[in-house]
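Researcher: We are triaging several targets before committing to wet-lab work. For this one, the compound of interest is nicotinamide-adenine-dinucleotide. I'm pasting the protein sequence and the ligand SMILES. What I need is the predicted three-dimensional arrangement of the protein with the ligand bound, expressed as structure tokens, so it can go straight into our comparison scripts without reformatting.
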Amino acid sequence: MVYVDVGANSYPVYVKAGILSDVGRITRDKGIKKALIVTDNNVGPLYLKKVQSALVEAGLKAFPLTLPAGESYKTISAVELIWEAALEATLDRKSLLISLGGGVIGDLTGFAAATYMRGLNFLQIPTTLLAQVDASVGGKTGCNLRKGKNLVGAFHQPIAVCADPSTLLSLSEREYCSGFAEIIKHALIASSHLLELVENNLDLIKKRDLTILTQIVEENVEIKAKIVSQDEKETGKRALLNLGHTAGHALEELGDYKIYHHGEAVAIGLVIATQIACERGYLDSSYLSRIQALLCSLGLPISPHEEISPEIWWKRTFADKKQSSGQVYWVLPKVGGLANYGEKVEFNEFAKAVRSLGKG
Ligand SMILES: NC(=O)c1ccc[n+]([C@@H]2O[C@H](COP(=O)([O-])OP(=O)(O)OC[C@H]3O[C@@H](n4cnc5c(N)ncnc54)[C@H](O)[C@@H]3O)[C@@H](O)[C@H]2O)c1
Ligand SMILES: [Zn+2]
């Protein structure tokens, strides 16, 4: 168990194969009597019954709501469906909203929980690797606008997160591999131990061995929890979590969110940030080849599918909402599993890194 220390809103993250069956006990122990479980049409058929039965067996009333899967449904209309289902189920402020799914369901349900009756209890059951190691921890919730991702949202911490690594066994290969980009990101900003753990266990990772997956998820949650507890509302250090995302988000956008999965774009973004860091002497140049080799072994791309002009790509980095006063701040890795945030990068450095992509 990892504890996310955010003052009065602190909460546990349980990482354990089989934890889905304990959800009833965990919620009953918090005095909750009624819950709405929000899931999507891929995850629902696989895990909804298990979670619902666990709650009912613990004496709770449990109502299900299944939404269509996918980022294109991460809209305010989906949030409205959750609000309406909460009303239908007569949830009150002592009730609970549960998200059962990936980051999309987690963000939507969390936002509905932050806003319905000015705030309901919220519990996350993340079922993708990305959601277990990243999205379910930290309290960021929200939905997309037509003009941009995650433009509406709220900070709303869950009362608990139950991450069951055995749910990762049903993920598609592409979704599974994509999650590793955030894992390598965490390793680069905070832990050379995690980097070695992944490097030394590639065979077990490919086989989705539950022991190694449990260890990996738990170490990632520890890293994210530590950063979040130092900067809950992202006024400083939490920006470290954007490593690889400046170039990555821009690439995702250039591909109109159709060509790259988030993790794939972030993997390429990590290569660019590492390349810039090596050029500046923050890291030995052998580090770049090491990261490239590792990302490749994890089934992630290390260069775009087709050549992209550095000028066009660079311009897109300024469209990211995280810019403040026109300046884009980068996160760059440094020696010893550390990183700097708030770094200014010049176009020439970026262009050099882009031109050398795929030539590593
Ligand atoms: N709140 C945060 O801090 C935070 C951090 C990172 C990302 N996010 C958000 O997370 C979202 C991406 O999350 P994601 O990658 O989990 O996407 P997702 O929720 O769309 O899930 C990906 C796909 O996998 C399916 N799926 C989920 N679990 C499954 C399982 N166990 N077996 C089989 N299929 C399964 C889903 O139905 C979906 O089709 C984005 O919207 C992003 O903005 C939020
Ligand atoms: Zn990310």
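Researcher: Any quick observations?
Model: The chain has 14 helices and eleven strands.
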